[in-house]
């Protein structure tokens, strides 16, 4: 009987498998271990254990075969050689003809079974593992929870798995060579996708509407090309060595990686409290334009509006200053954080998040302990919080607001919801030069939430808010009112004109002009309703923007304030302001103080920087100069990591 491998062949095969095991199951080591890196570390440990177990099993089986059995004598006449007419495989069996035919049938069944398992693992990775992993790492970015996402994942899995099995079965019936070629191609694509999504995702850019600049991803693209070439060579070598080698590689690769995916998903779920229920509230448009004859406090937040850029715009085009008559622009304002998730809770409360607790616990603390929000509750203000993220930011106390309604986190449009989930998966798992094909629309994800009968969900889109504002018939009541509107503002992608028309491509400057148009309409509405003088109006950004000016710190947000009964021409102030004091200052303004009086001046202002989606690692800075001066923004050397 011919041996499949000679000694040299065995050595090369072991070297080949060792290389791929190293590629699959090792990751770079950093000075700290974050939850996602810990997941990969566990994958590495589990992968090494499974690989060692498999190798031990292979060699132990070989040793056992070399041990002669005393109770069975094999005669030369009993040996039977069967040549597969469709391929090069040779089956040798010491038994009868019927028993040999049984072995051949079993071999075909096992190969079809392995192909079906490959389809199942691919379906699991793309429709269950990937959406759940993305959700567990970004829980606060989505309205849904595990219990509404998982059933949709199962539906997607069923569709993809059934379709894949049907194709595999048809190909097997048509021709064995076509079937084998299709399975090899499928295995190749699976391994490429597995590595791309799980081990080459460190460069993934934030999904925030920006167009991808491929010049920033030369390194991962080169790695992808090298990986493609190596895998092609590996497939070529396996095919050269025969079908048996290909199917053995498929058999072990699929099972080992499937085990790693399951272990990894369980760890991510545990680390991120993935099974925790979310509160079921809808942020509606109810009472959106209800104002008071007694007192109004209105916060109009334009996302990503930069203070320095805004000041430059008003200096170059002074006609815009007329819109902000009676307002003071505090140009020298330092925010708390560079991204919305932490910036908004901080500016509403002044409470710093130092990563001492999970984000959900932090927002509960903030929105129940904020000096401003506590005061408006004590004084019985009618409160409306118009922010699409409010329902996921707070688990308790959200019933204080006029525009929240209880509801279940059910999916209203399963088809659109599934499409967006697959786009998210594609964005993570596709090669970098293909990621721009997977354009996720978060507004569509929001619209998939099942609405309550008679309730209309609030949306942060500039054009829709502006349309509602222009068509509004404001309701005037006697109770004091607090209104907080969080709009798209000057956030990427830049798609708005000065007239708040949505186009394919605009600019940051035009987006700021769009914000001015919206602010002008709100001010006009308050004046026409006769409640302007009784209103504290704060027009602000949650953080700055314009990386070409401020790198990526975004520490200088827009802050314009008009106090009660305040009348003067537009003016600017270079007073050193920190968002840490804004919440208490709002209380002072509600009590009749002017903005200049109640906002304290600080010579040193604290700021926490974190890379987008890396909120678990905060780096502390102190601003010693003007808010927009990056050279005076000095790191303290302290960092705060979420345990």
Can you walk through the features of this model?
The chain is an alpha/beta fold. The protein is 48% helix and 13% strand. It has 19 helices and 18 strands. The strands form six sheets. The chain has a seven-stranded mixed sheet with strand order 8-11-5-12-13-6-14, with helices on both faces. The protein has a three-stranded antiparallel sheet with strand order 16-17-18, with no helix packed on it. Strands 1-2 form a two-stranded antiparallel sheet. Strand 1 and strand 2 form a beta hairpin. Helix 3 packs parallel to helix 5. The protein is elongated. The two termini are 60 Å apart.
Task: Please describe the structure with a list of short key phrases separated by commas or semicolons.
643 residues; alpha/beta; seven-stranded mixed beta sheet; 19 helices; 18 strands; 48% helix; elongated; disordered N terminus
Question: Residue-averaged pLDDT, rounded?
Answer: 82
Q: What is the beta-strand fraction?
A: 5-15%
How many β-strand runs?
18
What is the C-alpha radius of gyration, as a whole number of Å? Answer: 31 Å
- Overall, the morphology is elongated
What structural category do the secondary elements indicate?
Answer: alpha/beta
Beginning-to-end CA distance, first to last residue: 60 Å
Number of helices: 19
Low-pLDDT stretches: 1-39, 71-95
Strand order, largest beta sheet? 8-11-5-12-13-6-14
Helix percentage:
40-55%
How are the SSEs placed, and which strands pair?
Blueprint: H1 7-25, H2 35-66, E1 79-83, E2 90-94, H3 97-137, H4 146-174, H5 176-199, H6 218-241, H7 243-271, E3 281-283, E4 290-292, E5 296-302, H8 307-316, E6 328-330, E7 333-334, H9 340-349, H10 359-369, H11 371-378, E8 382-386, H12 390-393, E9 404-406, H13 414-429, H14 442-447, H15 462-471, E10 475-477, E11 481-487, H16 508-528, E12 535-540, H17 547-550, E13 559-562, E14 571-573, E15 577-578, H18 582-590, H19 595-598, E16 605-609, E17 617-623, E18 633-641
